[in-house]
Amino acid sequence: MASMRDIKRRRAGVESTQQITKAMKLVSTVKLQRAKDRALRSKTYFHSMYLTVKSLLSKSGNLDVIYTKKQECEKKAVIVITSNRGLAGGYNSNVMKLITQSDFKKEDLEIYAIGKKGRELLERRGYYIAEDLSDLMDEYEYADTKKLCDRLMRRMEKGEIGEIYLAYTNFKNTVSHVPTMLKLLPILPEDELIGDDDSQSDDDALIMNFEPDDVDALGMIIPKYVSSLLYGALIEATASENGARMQAMDNATNNAEEMISSLTLKYNRARQGSITQELTEIIAGAEAIS
Amino acid sequence: MSDGNLIQLKIITPERVFFEGEVTMVEFNTTEGEIGVLKGHIPLTVIIDPGILTITTTEGPRNAALHAGFAEILPDKVTILAELVEWPSEIDERRAQAAKDRAEVRLSHIKPETDVDRATIALKKAICRLEVLK
After folding, report:
1. Residues of chain A with pLDDT under 50
2. CA of A139 to nearest chain B CA: how many angstroms apart?
3. CB distance from B116 to chain A under 8 Å?
4. Is the CB of B47 less than 8 angstroms away from the CB of A203?
5. Spatial distance between the Cα atoms of A177 and B56, rounded to a whole number of angstroms
6. A95: which of A212, A225, A266, B10 lies 20 to 30 Å off by Cα?
7. pLDDT at A147
8. CB-CB contact of A201 with A4 (8 Å)
9. For residues B37 and B7, is the Cβ–Cβ distance under 8 A?
């Protein structure tokens, strides 16, 4: 049996770890709340954006815009959103699985990594990292996502990449986060449009006019649509990251609690054992004298 | 002015709701030219070009700098999805002036690697910011 001192030291160690995990959980809870507020604030924008793009596309089926046609190029750009820091349970590895278990060929992929963990993991497996934008994960604004999208779309126009994908974690609610792979471009007519469709269709009766005409309007609005999707994904990923970390740290705190109680039991047993032993020795000694 | 002439205006960006309320008229710049919207406009979607946004309420006009986005106009409602829009108090005059000078230099010495579209947009944005401050 371990000595009393060893058990005591071990218990103190677990206790201080528990304090850290508890603090981390609190921090993630606050950050999660902030991310949720942010998502709420931008929701109206995305919804209106979605409705406009949807009405544009439904109105004008076969338009001659580069973003709605299949490209010849085999190269695919994938924007991978992960976290900069670990200790978030399966958060990062779930996103990784989307890529490693997809049917994409490794040599066709160009990774645009947002988040240090994702970059490190993919780099180790031999994927080509085209850009590392991990700083974005700490602080991002709409303008940042727009710049990235502009760069990607310019490459697509030049024919250097054929498709743009986005791998991130969708935030359903505080306990459920779904790793998701989205195709951003091209938007083919047969594809479902991405967005939440709970619209009341009271505006459908009106015939919308476009100025400039549909083709030009579509060419100008789609880039905005794509960057707003990316911005939304970043917000959701931040919320998911903190949700995942909150859960992981909650579990860690509970596990520490369990360990502490079992160690306390062991310690008490060891203490009782040593008292009993001492008593037996004293009694035995006293008997020997008399 | 009677209430019958008011139109619902909503200006939203990805980061916040910039303006929401009833106005008598809203004016802004589109790719096809300047436009002023009153109640009863035909349904129209326009793409925004950098320019001054003037919101006229019953209390009088207010200006702001509107840089990019698009607007959806319905007979009784205008929704502007702006990527970037600023009240005059949010603009840094010195930065705008510097950006304007930089863009002008770039456009007056065009080299093969110069991105003319980008420089033009930068110049338009800077001019629009400075205009709003006046």
Report:
1. 198-203
2. 13
3. no
4. no
5. 45
6. A225
7. 85
8. no
9. yes
Give residue-wise pLDDT tens across range B78-133: 888 888 888 888 888 888 888 888 888 888 887 777 777 778 888 888 888 888 77
Query: 3-state DSSP call for residue B45?
Result: strand
Q: Give me the residue from B31, B44, B81 closest to A48, CB to CB.
A: B81
Question: Does CATH place domain A64-189+213-247 in 3.40.1380.10?
Answer: yes
**Any CB–CB contact under 8 A between B109 and chain A?**
no
pTM: 0.78
Tell me the per-residue pLDDT of A153-175, one tens digit each, with 9 for 90 and over.
888 888 888 888 888 888 888 77
Do residue A224 and residue B70 have CB atoms under 8 angstroms apart? yes
Say if B90 is an interface residue toward chain A (CB within 8 Å).
no
Q: Which residues pair with A286 in a beta bridge?
A: none
The amino acid sitting at A17 is T
Which pLDDT tens digit goes with each residue over A50-86?
Answer: 777 777 777 665 566 677 777 777 788 888 888 888 8
Q: Which domains does chain B have, with CATH numbers?
A: 3-88 (2.60.15.10), 92-133 (1.20.5.440)
Q: Which residues of A touch B12 (CB under 8 A)?
A: 44-45, 48
Cβ contacts of B122 on chain A, cutoff 8 Å: none
pLDDT at B1: 45
